[in-house]
């Protein structure tokens, strides 16, 4: 089954709730790809020897990997960290996450600055382009196991909104308006 995504409501309730509009307004993989968001469905049970994952890593130059268990029992200052992840920000590099277990939400801004919620579950590999405004939170399960991938040494720097003069943000906006280049096919 493909990843689920939808436009969010304007509620200020617990961010770990689904926050679907009523009626629910789903967002397709095609709509996500128009924002530069890429997606693959993989088998998390074989991630250590998964040839498809290895091909993605090789093709895109992801030579660094680590694994993060995010839950109250394993993360010091869990609530504070979750609050930081949920602060709207950009990165100067792609954000690549492969969900190996549990689930959570990546929220991204569309071209009209509306929030789209992307629900990742085990087997979902998602790539957010550099410069896209986004945030992350767990769902009510309060657990996710993520593989984090990087090109070269990992860079953890988040640049909180506003970042309109940030070179990565400018390049992202330019990519949306020019429609140049074709990304590696995802499914």
Topology:
Elements: E1 4-7, H1 29-34, E2 38-41, H2 51-60, E3 64-70, H3 78-85, E4 89-90, E5 95-109, E6 115-121, E7 124-128, E8 134-138, E9 144-150, E10 159-160, H4 167-178
Antiparallel strand pairs: 1-6, 2-7, 3-9, 4-10, 5-6, 5-7, 5-8, 5-9
List keywords for this structure.
eight-stranded antiparallel β-sheet; 10 strands; 187 residues; single chain; Jelly Rolls; two-stranded antiparallel sheet; alpha+beta; 4 helices; disordered C terminus
Task: Give an overview of the whole structure.
It is found in: Cytoplasm; Nucleus. The chain has 187 residues and is an alpha+beta fold. It has one domain (4-177): Sandwich (Jelly Rolls), CATH 2.60.120. It contains four helices and ten strands; from the N terminus they run βαβαβαβββββββα. The strands form two sheets. Strands 1, 2, 3, 5, 6, 7, 8 and 9 form an eight-stranded antiparallel beta sheet that branches. A hairpin with a 5-residue loop joins strand 5 (95-109) and strand 6.
């Amino acid at each position: 089954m493909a990843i689920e995504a939808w436009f969010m409501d304007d509620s200020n309730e617990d961010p770990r709730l689904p926050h679907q509009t009523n009626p629910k307004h789903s967002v397709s993989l095609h709509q996500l790809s128009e924002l530069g968001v890429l997606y693959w469905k993989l088998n998390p049970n074989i991630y250590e020897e998964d040839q498809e994952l290895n091909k993605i890593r090789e093709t895109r130059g992801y030579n660094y990997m680590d694994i993060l268990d995010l839950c109250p029992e394993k993360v010091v200052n869990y609530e504070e960290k979750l609050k930081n992840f949920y602060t709207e920000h950009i990165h100067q590099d792609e954000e690549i996450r492969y969900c190996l277990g549990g689930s959570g939400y990546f929220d991204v801004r569309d071209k009209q600055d509306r929030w789209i919620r992307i629900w990742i579950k085990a087997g979902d590999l998602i790539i957010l382009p550099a410069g896209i405004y986004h945030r992350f939170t767990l769902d009510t399960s309060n657990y996710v196991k993520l593989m984090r991938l990087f090109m070269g040494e990992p860079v953890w720097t988040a640049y909180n909104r506003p970042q309109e003069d940030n070179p990565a943000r400018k390049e992202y906006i330019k990519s949306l308006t020019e429609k140049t280049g074709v990304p590696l096919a995802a499914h």
